[in-house]
Backbone:
């Protein structure tokens, strides 16, 4: 296994790129530590597969380098990089049995049959496919085919990294949660570096210790699931993570204060010196409280959704929609209410980027 470093990486599929818009990856600098569980999270088309294929060697980047520890592997073909990749759709040999499919990557490397048997048995147990070992792969359900595909990625112990590119796409929704937690458990047992690519926040946040969030060919934030939730570095991360995502409200910053209309909104702490003028306030629905006649922003309830564990209130403050997540009693549609924001969780964003810092003693 190895530490993987991406340095000054850029990639364009166009032979003559002229501007940033022609680059699927704009500029990537990133280090994946040995043994880590990472997720690469972002909407479709943001460059996730491009990045994975550059790490595995299926693509050579237009610019920049890839290092495995200190070795520059930028121009090495996939076979010499010692990585395992699991794709969106199962890659298995239909005519072989499940056992032979799982054994293939090991036999291919010249492992003796005793080692093959030991590894195949162990992986089959972890994936709960032991009873299928003698079945021909052609006869498996799509879910089980993908499980075997994952098993083929996990069976070797000498790989630098195991990469999963949206592996649960073909899995039935009711099995997804099971495989998701299985993968997490497998990471803890196998201890290989794993990179899990997905556009689904739940998959990313349950699997990874560190999540890399991408947008339009760039990394916007790297952090633990809690860091991404609590301090989104960019409004994009605030929107993309959370359900519903962070409320983002236009504001005007003057005299060190942020005004939404005429209301001064109390922020977590001081703002960057260049924040004056148009900016945005970010507050997660979890930190918005509702009262009938307390202090706060005047708003009118548009809808209330009961989602089981809590209620999601959608209210309008002027022409702005604000969500609040409430644990207990909620108002009714049509009610006039006051919305209050928890100060320590109220952030300022300038040009999309976080521009406030936590202040002392702010509750
Ligand atoms: P993701 O995996 O996040 O959905 P991709 O890495 O597949 O994103 O794609 C990133 C961008 O590169 C998209 O705009 C996509 O259309 C473009 N792209 C991907 N593959 C190719 C290709 N083989 N040729 C040209 N453009 C491509
Ligand atoms: Mg993709």
Residues:
């Amino acid at each position: 296994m190895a530490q993987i470093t991406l340095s000054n990486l850029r990639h364009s599929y166009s032979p003559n790129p002229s501007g940033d818009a022609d680059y699927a990856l704009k500029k990537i600098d990133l280090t994946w530590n040995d043994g880590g569980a990472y997720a690469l999270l972002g909407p479709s088309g943001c460059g996730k597969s491009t990045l994975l294929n550059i790490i595995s060697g299926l693509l050579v980047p237009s610019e920049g380098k890839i290092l495995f520890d200190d070795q520059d592997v930028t121009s090495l073909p996939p076979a010499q990089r010692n990585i395992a990749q699991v794709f969106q759709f199962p890659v298995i040999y239909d005519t072989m049995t499940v056992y032979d499919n799982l054994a293939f990557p090991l036999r291919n490397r010249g492992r003796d049959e005793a080692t093959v048997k030991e590894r195949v048995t162990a992986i089959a147990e972890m994936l709960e496919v032991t009873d299928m070992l003698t079945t021909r792969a052609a006869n498996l359900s799509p879910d089980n085919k993908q499980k075997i595909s994952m098993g083929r990625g996990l069976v070797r112990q000498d790989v630098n990294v195991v990469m999963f590119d949206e592996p649960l796409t073909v899995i039935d929704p009711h099995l997804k949660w099971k495989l998701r937690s299985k993968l997490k458990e497998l990471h803890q047992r196998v201890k290989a570096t794993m990179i899990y690519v997905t556009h689904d926040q739940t998959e990313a946040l349950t699997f990874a210790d560190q999540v890399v969030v991408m947008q339009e060919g760039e990394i916007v934030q790297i952090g633990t699931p809690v860091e991404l939730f609590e301090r989104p570095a960019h409004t994009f991360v605030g929107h993309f993570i959370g359900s519903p995502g962070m409320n983002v409200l236009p504001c005007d910053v003057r005299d060190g204060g942020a005004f939404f209309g005429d209301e001064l909104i109390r922020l977590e702490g001081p703002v960057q010196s260049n924040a004056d003028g148009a900016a945005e306030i970010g507050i997660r629905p979890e930190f918005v409280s509702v009262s009938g006649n307390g202090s706060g922003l005047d708003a009118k309830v548009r809808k209330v959704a009961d989602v089981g564990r809590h209620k999601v209130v959608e209210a309008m403050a002027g022409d702005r929609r604000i969500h609040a997540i409430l644990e207990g009693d909620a108002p009714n549609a049509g009610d006039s209410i006051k919305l209050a924001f928890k100060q320590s969780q109220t952030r300022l964003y300038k040009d999309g980027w976080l521009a406030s810092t936590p202040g002392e003693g702010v509750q």
